[in-house]
Amino acid sequence: MGMTIGLLAMSGVRVCDPELLKIGLTLPGFVERSKVIASLPSLGLLTLAALTPKAHRVRYFEAKDVAEADECFASLCECDLVAISSMTAQIDEAYAIADRLRNNGTRVVLGGLHATALPKEGAQHADSVVSGEGEPVWPTVVADYEKKSPKPI
Length: 153
Prior knowledge:
alpha/beta
């Protein structure tokens, strides 16, 4: 029997600095463009889903859903392995979710631009970090977790 693998996209544009918020979100069209971009699924994670061996079940999640609904986080916790892809703008939220998942016994793989730039930092919040493009190594990552002991109870 295969694993259940969750793919978590950290979508959307988040501006936390009040000064940047004031300046950046007043630019013409910025809010509209960011909403459109945030509504698109993560092409990288969808590609990983396609590369996942058929023996495994793949589920796709958006961070906004996890942050807004406990039942969505609970669904993530049911996965044997969760891959999180994040850029720097969302990395604090990604780390918080990864830490919560690991505290619940779910294994976590981090990837994306930030993890590529700072893999040692990412390793503090994940069981594995993919540096660079995930597509060439994803089948190996999945195979490695197939060999490891099942998710602890």
